[in-house]
Amino acid sequence: MADKLQIALPAETASLLTIRRFVEAACSQAGLDDEASYDIKLAVDEACMNIVEHGYAGLDPGSIVVSLQYGARKLVVRITDFGHPFEPSEPPEPDPEAALVGKPGGFGIYFIYRSVDSVSYEATGSGNTLTLVKDLGSSEK
Amino acid sequence: MQHNDVTVVRIVDDLDAATSEEATAYLDAEIDVGHTNLVIELGDVAYMSSAGLRVILSTMQGARQQGGDLRLAGAEGHVRRVLDMSGFFRFIQEFPTAGEAVASYSR
User: Fold this and answer.
1) What is the pLDDT of residues B65-85, one digit of tens each?
2) Measured at the alpha carbon of residue A136, what is the angle toward residues A135 and A141, in degrees to the nearest 5?
3) What SS3 class is residue B58?
């Protein structure tokens, strides 16, 4: 796989735009089409948003590390934080009408699963890492 | 922007967790002053996440609670895909242009 691109930022909403720009640049370098690039941007943004909103709740402020590697066949993004583990199991398709009467939640994780081809999560003593893999189609553009 | 009794709000930034609070505050303020027939123009929005969906959902609920409504205009490309994935088009009306969305309130 190609070199790893990595960025580390404070886990705050102001970092989300920078992370998206990082992902955009990396996807462009990897030759992804517009739709695949948006998919990855969305998945990473949703994951980072969860960390910003819940990851360090009640803890000292912490950081998010986003690393990205790609080869001809796939692109792998790893999002690491050092706060509360939060394993994002695949939710059922959200019912937006249920959201009308209840909590409008659940879309973020659903989008992550819809946007990439595999999602895995590991929480260890040295951090929590969400790994997203996007299969790249033909390398012809 | 007011057209008769309909207020068009054009969003030009990315609609993500960082900007959604400001967007919600702006839209809530519109509802508070009685602008309850709303159109959100999305044609200039390059990026939207589930945070943007929350803005749309809460604005819609607020408007409808006051006897008004929220309709969307200009949802295209990736923003449209996100809205489609969420199923929002099942219960929020949307139109290609703000003009058409405004006109729909007169029907």
Assistant:
1) 999 999 999 999 999 999 999
2) 165
3) helix
DSSP class of residue A90 equals P
Nearest-by-Cβ selection for A96 from B14, B16, B91: B91
Collapsing DSSP to helix, strand or coil, A5 comes out as: strand
Q: Do A17 and B54 touch (CB under 8 A)?
A: no
Confirm whether B89 is domain-assigned: yes
**pTM for the whole structure:** 0.91
Closest by CA to A44, choosing from A130, A105, A128, A136, is: A130
Structure tokens at A42: 């969305």
Number of domains in chain B: 1
> Does CATH place domain A5-135 in 1.20.1250.20?
no
CATH code of B14's domain: 3.30.750.24
Q: How far is A71 from chain B (nearest CA, A)?
A: 25
Determine the structural domain holding residue B93 and report its residue range: 2-99
